[in-house]
């Protein structure tokens, strides 16, 4: 019997309110698993007793793969399986409350209903809906007991990412935009384009009930390596043919470009871009997620829990060996249970979408249990050794002579790596330090025991390592000590003033030959261009401390500076008849300030003027000025405004209009760039009223 085409009422507003999905802009029903939703349809002539519902997802739905469920009407909802409970019925329509199990596969479902009357049955398609993870539901693997944390880590579209270096932590705003139009569809496309799906679609879809599986798959898909994923990394210092990684202010533009280009990787990203895009995708799907910044982050390429850095006799940092220490590195933490490891390893899990090392043959990283990392349990899945090294590796600084191939240890440090590990506070725009959640206190007995335990699990304790320094080399004590002090402001456009402070630790005089260099670097400390070099010879009396002023003028470094605005200054001190001493400092320069004013009251659906002012602080013209503006619920997409050139010390003031679409605390993000200043970023809190 051909059934009349039903009209389905998905009760979009009411269901969205109950399921915390009101912020999505979609005409399709979006609900969370393990919770009931209501649907009303007509065309079923009173046979509610004989209704059978069919919910199916993926390319070949099957009961075995948990991608197909058939269920009749029952008197109470089930907590274990799909179920339907009759709400009400009239002569031509019926309202049903449908519940999914808390471990259902997430994604887009087709819902149909089969009715049987006097021996003949007919099936009608009611339409589609999208099912997401449910951190508000205690049965879900992503259940997060604190509602304030659910609001921050799932519903908040604004984030703050920490950067700079351990001496000088800076931060910038980011628009995650997980509820912007079409982002959810793009997230579903990302899953369907992964290598896992391409190799075996049926099995891949059947695993989409598991946050640890999806976290790992998505950590691979957010980078372009292996699978034509979303963002192409570039750490060369030149970004032709794409956008400079520091110029993005949100994930929406990146995800939309990926889709619009026919799924070609978006150029270019560095670690915070990968982490921010992964945050957007996971929050969108309902997995609580945040970004984490680790300062002095180790990239241990050879798995020996040690990073080696090499310098030549002139003090140049050499690109030798695959290990490196980044000024900072950004990754993700997502919250879910670890049924594979046991309850003590549940909670925050580390995922990293930046393509650094292969895992299982492709560039993916995690989930690694944060508790396991703290306890040195590096043998637990996934990628424990790499993550443990990022926050705990020992550092070795070597002098390398390229003529002879000989390397000499200058010094080693076990407290250098993994400092000021930072994330945004819940409900506030502040920094929270989570270092103690990653490791025991540096230098404490427990911390050294944990490090030894990790080495043992990796088989490093018993194995002779010919590349390691000898105990004698590690024990050697230098005759002098040195440090760089900053004297004055660290701002792009101003001269850089430093002091090299040298102190004789011995009770006899020492003669020292000092070779100094300054290089512009990336935030990964990769040297890009030499800025300055100098050498001095000094004699230090017994126990004497001397200071040597260093000035690097703006016009000396301006052309060489990278968009990361970082400079590494190094002094290698050759002490006569003593061991060499390395003095280094990584300097992160600040941009000049930019000011935003909202002129008047911000009201829903009413235009309001915003003014952005910038004063050129340097003695030359600033050209090619562009202002980029974005902010969820304040404007759609990214607004780009060209600004006329600015003469020396001139102030430019630019006005534009916003029409807020929703009430509440919103964030407006601004990025100003020009030929002299890369990416001056700021954000403004806008309180929108009804």
UniProtKB/TrEMBL annotation:
Cited Gene3D superfamilies? Immunoglobulins, Transglutaminase-like
Per its record, what are the GO molecular function terms? Answer: metal ion binding; protein-glutamine gamma-glutamyltransferase activity
Q: Which reaction does it catalyse?
A: L-glutaminyl-[protein] + L-lysyl-[protein] = [protein]-L-lysyl-N(6)-5-L-glutamyl-[protein] + NH4(+)
Its keywords, alphabetically, are: Acyltransferase, Calcium, Metal-binding, Transferase
Spans of biased composition, class Polar residues? 1-10
Q: Which cofactor does it need?
A: Ca(2+)
Query: What PROSITE patterns does the record point to?
Result: TRANSGLUTAMINASES (PS00547)
Which Pfam families does this entry report, sorted A to Z? Transglut_C (PF00927), Transglut_core (PF01841), Transglut_N (PF00868)
- Residues of the Transglutaminase-like domain: 263-355
Q: Enumerate the PANTHER family for this protein.
A: PROTEIN-GLUTAMINE GAMMA-GLUTAMYLTRANSFERASE (PTHR11590), PROTEIN-GLUTAMINE GAMMA-GLUTAMYLTRANSFERASE E (PTHR11590:SF36)
Q: Would you identify the family this protein belongs to, as annotated? A: Belongs to the transglutaminase superfamily. Transglutaminase family.
Record protein name field:
protein-glutamine gamma-glutamyltransferase
Give the organism, scientific name: Grallaria varia (variegated antpitta)
What gene makes this protein?
A: Tgm3
